[in-house]
UniProtKB/TrEMBL annotation:
NCBIfam families according to UniProt: rsfS_iojap_ybeB
Subunit and interaction comment: Interacts with ribosomal protein uL14 (rplN).
InterPro entries the record matches: Iojap/RsfS/C7orf30
Gene name of the encoded protein: rsfS
Keywords attached to this entry: Cytoplasm, Repressor, Translation regulation
Organism: Geopseudomonas aromaticivorans
Cellular compartment(s): Cytoplasm
Protein name (record): Ribosomal silencing factor RsfS
Main function: Functions as a ribosomal silencing factor. Interacts with ribosomal protein uL14 (rplN), blocking formation of intersubunit bridge B8. Prevents association of the 30S and 50S ribosomal subunits and the formation of functional ribosomes, thus repressing translation.
Pfam families: RsfS (PF02410)
Family statement: Belongs to the Iojap/RsfS family.
Length: 117
């Protein structure tokens, strides 16, 4: 399955489970670790776990074998490594603390600002 198709499966699963603030970041030009990062928020520890479980279920149904998962025990955050796509599911306070959008998108904005100088 192509990375773009996998992103769509992940987003559909997150939307079905009422994830909040779903963001997709194309990181192909920034890292060799993965192609896309999908970041979403869950409203509680139970919701975060449920979001991650549903994403795993949906991608497995499409024949994708996840490489691994981390952080799901606490329910504050979870990381799903699907190879070409890495999914981060977090409670809002944890998401704000780590600010992955700024980290990954900020590098691109920073480079653009320096190119103009």
């Amino acid at each position: 399955m192509q990375a773009e198709q996998l992103v769509q499966v992940v987003i559909a699963a997150l939307e079905d489970m009422k994830a909040q603030d779903i963001t997709t970041i194309d990181v192909r030009d920034k890292t060799s670790i993965t192609d896309f990062m999908v970041i979403a928020s869950g409203s509680s520890s139970r919701h975060v776990k449920s979001l991650a479980d549903t994403v795993l279920e949906k991608v497995k149904a499409q024949g994708v074998k996840p490489i691994g998962s981390e952080g799901l025990d606490s329910g504050e955050w979870g990381l799903l490594d699907l190879g070409n796509v890495v999914v981060h599911v977090m409670q809002p306070a944890t998401r704000q603390f780590y600010d992955l959008e700024r980290l990954w998108q900020g590098a691109e904005q920073s480079r653009a600002q320096h190119a103009d100088e």
